[in-house]
Amino acid sequence: MQKVEKDTNYMFCPLPHQLPIICLVCKHFCQHPILPECHGQAHTPSQIHHDAVPEAYYHCKVWGYLWMNWYMMDKWVLWAQLSHGHTIPWKRMMMLVESLWRNFKQMVLHYYNCPWVDFVTYTLVIQGIAPYWVCFNQIIKNPWDGHARHLCGERIPIKHVWLTLCQCPIRGLYNTDIKHWLCQCGAQKYHSYLLCKHVQALPLPSADWWTTVV
């Protein structure tokens, strides 16, 4: 039998195609039936999946990998934001879990070499989760009751992003729905906090609003 030589220069996904594919998958992840597309177009979850599959198919040659690992229906519901058609997840993907494990490895596991599973479980409960529990109690039980509350947690980046978007120039008119917090510009779904520069349609919230917003 003749031995087939492997091409050492073969690359599964060439570098020039990696970023466009990532942007395409990101676009499909951010689409949601509640959030309108540009110019106010809205689609159902089945329509979004129906349009995403051929778009990914005709985009690249690694379609087999994308279909088996991302776009099959049983895989699609695991990562697409529209898996919950009537709600939008507050956090995207596994950010909280990844942050927990990253801090756990940096603060605890680097002291031990190949620890046993039962020991890792013990340290995770005793040392890894403890800082999060302390932070949670500080938020729930405000020790500075009666004093001006400081921004903490997600309030800090939300206010920073809000003020930054208020400085962006606006071109064109969009039907910004303040009551339902929706905008027809199409950019809202890509933002981590579902904001866009058309928040300028709202008056700048007071200081008390920033300390009570979740």
Protein described:
- The protein is an all-alpha fold and 214 residues long.
- It is 47% helix and 0% strand.
- It folds into 3 domains: 15-83, no CATH class; 95-140, no CATH class; 155-212, no CATH class.
- The protein has helices spanning 15-30, 45-59, 63-71, 73-79, 95-107, 117-128, 130-140, 155-165, 207-212.
- The model has no long low-confidence stretch (mean pLDDT 77).
Layout of helices and strands:
Blueprint: H1 15-30, H2 45-59, H3 63-71, H4 73-79, H5 95-107, H6 117-128, H7 130-140, H8 155-165, H9 207-212
Features:
0% strand, single chain, 214 residues, mainly alpha, 47% helix, 3 domains
> What's the tally of helices?
9
Number of strands: 0
How does the major sheet shape up?
A: none
What is the count of distinct domains? 3
Give Rg in angstroms: 23 Å
Q: Note the overall shape.
A: flat
Strand content: under 5%
Helical proportion? 40-55%
Query: What order do the helices and strands follow?
Result: HHHHHHHHH
- Low-confidence parts: none
The residue-averaged pLDDT reads 77
In terms of structural class, how would the helical and strand content be classed? mainly alpha
CA(first)-CA(last) distance = 67 Å
